[in-house]
């Protein structure tokens, strides 16, 4: 199976949280390859000439590691199977600005411009330089004959020997618009992620998150881990508000957001936290897939939530219609029209789904499980369960647990609707 180089490189850049710019004549859009720094320095900069100079100067079968004036890193190479095509990874930084860089800025820039450059540097992804070079070389070398890929180092990458004038830095386009553009880039990535979460689109949401986390936010605390936790709390809040827009009931929203709030505080390292954030995005999308009711009218949303949250109560067409102040016949017709099934069938299906879950996640007796889903006659419950699953409750629990012991457990389990009574919840937990 043939895989496009660009797709592989996009995946790699995403996994390392750095940008990837494809440069090819007429070089449209390459002005943002460093998030707009050079464009802000010189509005009249010759981007086509810049792109062509890179094509001319980067040797074939060579991975060039370049460092800019402000110690930002890039990696460039010519695509082996795409004529006049250059790929540029970056920017990334190998840590805070060095003393040498700060002295350079103090010599050539005024105080306001120095602050802008510092802010820019803080927003770029910081990574270990040797680690990213090793990874890039290992992967990109696979695109060339074995042993043919070489490396080269460029310093003061513009690739010109760039020395800005103070006038350039005093221009509004640099001192004000550059930080604003970086923030706009970050917010655009954030919005792409949240829009995908609202739809329950896991892959698009993860792609938006990968773009979002390329930006290194300005540290606010002395502890990097505390900073990471604080920003993770913000992410949790954003995701929580997103699934609220997808008409997910507050009960479920509270369940997932509270759980992740505890996990964030328990983090022991940033690396552990990065994995947690990816899981957060993935699970919030799954909640939308499972619990979103936005496709239904407010009336049916209310009825479905009433059913899901009170499965252990007496649920009937008559009682639900009375709660909504409408006639049973009207509710029956609207429910069937919007969901494609009768209200009675929906209640039975949800009860059996929850019963199946309780059988697998607790050691409660079958009679207790039946009571938890609003069925007091255990024989009737067994008959209903077998009709829905093809097995008795006892056989279902035995077979599914045996099967689960041979498989890898899923990432997480969605919460069940709460029992109406605290006493029954306590009995179930202890049993």
From TrEMBL:
One of its GO terms (molecular function) is DNA-binding transcription factor activity. It comes from the Bacteria. Residues 392-431 are annotated as: Disordered. Keywords: DNA-binding, Transcription, Transcription regulation. Residues 301-399 form the HTH araC/xylS-type domain. Residues 422-431 have a biased composition (Basic and acidic residues). InterPro entries: Homeodomain-like_sf, HTH_AraC, HTH_AraC-typ_CS. This is Helix-turn-helix domain-containing protein. It comes from Candidatus Faecalibacterium gallistercoris.
């Amino acid at each position: 199976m043939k895989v496009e180089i660009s797709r592989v490189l996009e995946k790699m850049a995403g996994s390392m949280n750095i940008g990837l710019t494809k440069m090819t004549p007429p070089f449209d859009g390459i002005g943002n390859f460093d998030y707009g720094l050079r464009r802000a320095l010189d509005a009249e900069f010759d981007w086509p000439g810049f792109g062509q100079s890179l094509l001319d100067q980067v040797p074939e079968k060579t991975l060039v590691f370049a460092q800019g004036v402000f110690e930002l890193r890039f990696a460039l190479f010519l695509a082996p199977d795409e004529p006049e095509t250059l790929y540029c990874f970056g920017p990334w930084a190998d840590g805070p600005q060095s003393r040498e860089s700060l002295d350079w800025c103090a010599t050539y820039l005024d105080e306001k411009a120095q602050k802008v450059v510092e802010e820019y540097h803080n927003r770029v992804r910081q990574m270990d330089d040797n680690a990213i070079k090793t990874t890039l070389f290992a992967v990109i070398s696979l695109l060339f004959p074995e042993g043919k890929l070489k490396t080269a180092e460029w310093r003061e990458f513009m690739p010109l020997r760039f020395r800005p004038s103070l006038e350039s830095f005093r221009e509004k386009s640099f001192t004000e618009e550059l930080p604003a553009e970086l923030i706009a880039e970050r917010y655009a990535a954030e919005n792409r992620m949240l829009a995908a979460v609202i739809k329950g689109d896991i892959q698009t949401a993860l792609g938006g998150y990968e773009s979002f986390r390329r930006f290194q936010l300005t540290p606010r605390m002395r502890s990097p881990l505390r900073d990471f936790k604080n920003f993770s709390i913000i992410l949790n809040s954003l995701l929580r508000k997103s699934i609220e827009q997808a008409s997910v009931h507050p009960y479920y929203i509270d369940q997932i957001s509270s759980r992740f709030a505890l996990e964030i505080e328990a983090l022991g390292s940033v690396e552990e936290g990065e994995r947690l954030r990816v899981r957060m995005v993935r699970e919030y999308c799954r909640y939308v897939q499972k619990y979103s009711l936005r496709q239904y009218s407010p009336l049916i949303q209310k009825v479905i939530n009433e059913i899901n949250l009170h499965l252990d109560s007496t649920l009937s067409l008559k009682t639900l219609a009375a709660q909504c102040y409408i006639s049973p016949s009207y509710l029956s017709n609207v429910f069937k029209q919007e969901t494609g099934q009768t209200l009675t069938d929906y209640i039975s299906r949800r009860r059996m789904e929850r019963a199946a879950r309780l059988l697998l996640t607790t050691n409660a007796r079958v009679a207790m499980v039946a009571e938890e889903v609003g069925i007091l006659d255990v024989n009737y419950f067994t008959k209903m369960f077998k009709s829905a699953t093809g097995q008795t409750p006892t056989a279902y629990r035995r077979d599914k647990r045996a099967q689960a012991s041979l498989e890898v457990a899923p990432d997480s389990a969605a919460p069940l609707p709460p029992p109406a009574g605290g006493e029954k919840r306590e009995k179930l937990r202890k049993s």
